[in-house]
Amino acid sequence: MGYDTDFLRYLRKRGIISSEDFDIALSMRKDTNVSLGIIAVNRGWLSTDQVKQVLALQREMKIKFGQAALRQQFLDRKQLRALLAEQKRVNLPPEEILVFLGRLTHQQLLNEQRVYARLSGESSA
């Protein structure tokens, strides 16, 4: 999955979201996730053939897409940082998807994130 679901589990356990909301958020996150390869092609930094080569190396070496693209010298570090920043900007986290869907308000999300951070800090101390 690639996404830390602890915060969503916390929201579900507290009754802030339902099990259905939890599943919807994760499903939508997966369905709407824009990959680095797509972003790189859209920017004209990689061809589709290069993306296929990167994906093959990624699978073979069990490394991240960006690492594989750097290893093949299809991208430089500056380009990879730009792609990662754009990916982070365009891919909403599941909890933001729930706000978008109206399952919780932005203020509820902020409040719960504060409480969760405080609780997480206490449990790791």
Descriptive notes:
The chain has two domains: 1-33 and 92-125; 34-90. Helix 2 (19-32) packs across helix 7 and helix 4 packs across helix 5. The longest helix has 19 residues, at 106-124. Helix content is 73%, strand content 0%. It is mostly helical and 125 residues long. The two termini are 28 Å apart.
Question: Mind sketching the topology for me?
Answer:
Layout: H1 6-13, H2 19-32, H3 36-43, H4 48-61, H5 65-71, H6 77-90, H7 94-100, H8 106-124
Helix pairs in contact: 2-7, 4-5
- Summed up, the helix count is 8
Net shape = elongated
Count of domain modules? 2
Which oligomeric state applies?
single chain
Largest sheet geometry: none
**N-to-C SSE string, H for helix and E for strand:** HHHHHHHH
| C-alpha-based Rg, rounded | 18 Å
Would you count the extended β strands for me?
0
Report strand %: under 5%
Low-confidence sequence ranges: none
N- to C-terminal distance:
28 Å
Share of helical residues: over 70%
**Helix and strand composition category:** mainly alpha
Q: Average pLDDT across residues?
A: 92
Characteristics of this structure?
125 residues, mainly alpha, 2 domains, 73% helix, elongated
Tell me briefly what this model is.
By secondary structure, the protein is an all-alpha fold.
